[in-house]
Amino acid sequence: MRYPKAYPALDQTQNLGLLQGLSGGFKDECEDNPWAFDPIHTWKTYDFRPKTLRSLSPTAVPATPHITAFIAGADPYYDPCLSQLNIGFWTNVKITNHLAAVVISSYLETDHPMCGFFSAELFMRDLTKLNLEYCSAFLVSSLLAFACTIYAAKDAQTLKMSQDFQEEAESLWEVERQADTLPALAGLGLLSVVIASHGKGSVAMRYFEDIADMSRRMRLFDVTDRLTAAEFKTLPVEVQMATAQAAWAAYNHLCLQSIVYWRPPVRIPPALPVPGSGIEEEADAQINMYRKCKVSMAFAYARYHKLLAWTDLLSGIMIRGNCNEAQVLVFHMFLHAIILDIFRPFIQEEKQHGYRAWQAKIQSPEAIFATSLKQLKSLVLCLRKQSPLTGMWHLALQYVATSVLKDIEDPEWKFYFLVCIESYQKMYTQYPILSMAVQGLLTLALRKKALTTGEARDLMDQVPVVPRQPDDAQFILDMDMVLETIEDAKAKSIARSFDDLVLFEEFIENFG
Fold it and tell me: Is residue 389 within 8 Å of 427, Cβ to Cβ?
């Protein structure tokens, strides 16, 4: 197949072991599944800085015996400097130095390679040395709010701490919002994710706008007089390192939110080197921008082929295999989610799950959509073996679950749908807002008459009741409906009709 980096060959028997679980519960180990995610974590070194900056040592994620020991579980901290942490200098929330170091380590291992809101090297130095250049109280509170959410998969008590750190960060932001700094920009990115995961979607949307506004004022992107590569080279080396990292992280974050929340896209990317590549040319991967306007089929095909040509340039560490770090799998998730969005407007809903009609030599929108959907299904099976699960996986779960509901005649639709529901269930503790994703998906299944009311109730009963039940899920759940009406396509709008729909269906079942 052409473009094997974008479309690696899939084992057609990959779900045989898991299919057996539909009648008797899912197997935890999936020992019969040849494509189950390899639990052996192999560590690779990624240098996220421009080549001109790599003379600095250590790197953002240094390949040292200490890091290897941390990954293997023999050392509690990601970096030995965390043993010197004085967390009381940065926050008034009660937390021990040891627990703060552990949860920060968890973040640096799992989500930082994908989010990268700040230079880990410079942040860690200033955090432990009590310097204020690349660290701040606001950034630390935001980071701990985020990190405690991740760590809740191992220790549920940290979820309450996450709420406390979030409230502290929100208070600090009201004081610091007039100061345009790199730590403030990084803190905003982290805080916006935490607030959304805790069920305050409308507030998170305001923070997305704050990120965009600050980035424009700092001339990082989305302005015509953005910071140029020539100006960038005049900055001190450390400032270059921190600025490039913050600019691209904020840009990527807003592009992601454009997909998840259907917010306005970023039209002008940074002109700075992409961290780790040394590339100083402008980015040209603004795939999601066209979705807000009507475009021709020719334009969609052109963007698709440009995207595929770009994947041919990927380095070996970014190629999917039987075992990859989470950031590699998440990258491929976004790649195929974007491809689905490119062609979704040109395909009728009932034809969006027609993979049985796929032919390699026919590049119809339906065939391309089906092929990328197959890749997403494979990724969803891979993620079941990851722990902890990152909230970024929501996009793959949502796209697969909603797509299989388009074709409930397919014998495997329920298998994939339940895999997605089960994966969401594993994430409730860390991301309470995802309970509304499940409720929304069950609502869509009832509308399609794909599930009985009893089945839907049984699955919904597994959603835990928490003191602050989230109810402001602003993210888009139905990517087809959003082309007509944004508000009705949101998870909160769909989820809120679950109870009424169940009562109506039960009335029809009993008296119809």
Answer: yes
